[in-house]
C-alpha cells in the first residue's frame, strides 16, 4: 500500500471514495470536498494498492482528510472502500495522521457516529478518548461522539 498527499486535483476521486465508503450516507460531493481542500491547513492522504492485474496499476482504496490550526488538528473524514475494509488500510491512514500530529505536538479531535462501533474501537486503539457527545449531530438525527487524542 502507498500513501500519497493529494490536493484539489483529487476532489472528484475523493468524493467517489467518500460516497462508496459511507454507502451514500451523507456523502460529500466534489464541490464540498474541493472547498475543504482549499482551506488553509487541510491535508488529504490517499491510500492506493496494487490492482489485481498489471493493467490496473495502483488503485485508490481509502483516504483521510485532516485540518490543522496551530496546535490543534481535526480529522474531517476517514474512509475506505467497502471492498477493501478490514485489511488495515484505515489503521495505516490513521497511524500516518497521528504520527504527523505527534511531530507537530498537535491535539487531534474528531466526531464519530454513535453507531459506528468499529471506528470507535479503532480510534480507541490509538488512544483517542471520548470527551463529549454532540446530540443530533448528523443529518439523520444520530448523535456523535467527540473524541480527542493528545500527544505525549
Automatic annotation (TrEMBL):
The identity of this protein, by name, is [Ribosomal protein bS18]-alanine N-acetyltransferase
A Pfam family found in this protein is Acetyltransf_1
Q: Where is the N-acetyltransferase domain?
A: 1-152
Q: Does the keyword Ligase apply?
A: no
Broad enzyme group: transferase
Main subcellular location:
cytoplasm
**Keywords carried by this UniProt record:** Acyltransferase, Cytoplasm, Transferase
Amino acid at each position: 500500500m502507498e500513501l500519497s498527499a493529494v490536493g484539489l486535483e483529487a476532489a472528484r476521486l475523493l468524493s467517489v471514495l467518500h460516497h462508496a465508503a459511507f454507502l451514500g450516507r451523507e456523502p460529500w460531493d466534489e464541490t464540498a470536498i474541493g472547498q475543504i481542500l482549499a482551506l488553509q491547513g487541510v491535508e488529504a492522504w490517499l491510500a492506493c494498492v496494487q490492482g489485481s492485474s498489471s493493467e490496473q496499476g495502483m488503485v485508490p482504496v481509502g483516504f483521510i482528510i485532516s485540518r490543522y490550526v496551530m496546535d490543534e488538528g481535526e480529522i474531517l473524514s476517514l474512509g475506505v472502500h467497502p471492498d477493501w475494509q478490514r485489511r488495515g488500510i484505515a489503521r495505516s491512514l490513521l497511524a500516518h495522521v497521528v504520527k504527523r500530529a505527534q511531530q507537530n505536538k498537535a491535539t487531534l479531535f474528531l466526531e464519530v457516529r454513535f453507531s459506528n462501533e468499529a471506528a470507535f474501537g479503532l480510534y480507541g486503539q490509538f488512544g483517542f478518548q471520548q470527551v463529549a457527545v454532540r446530540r443530533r449531530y448528523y443529518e439523520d438525527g444520530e448523535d456523535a461522539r467527540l473524541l480527542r487524542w493528545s500527544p505525549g
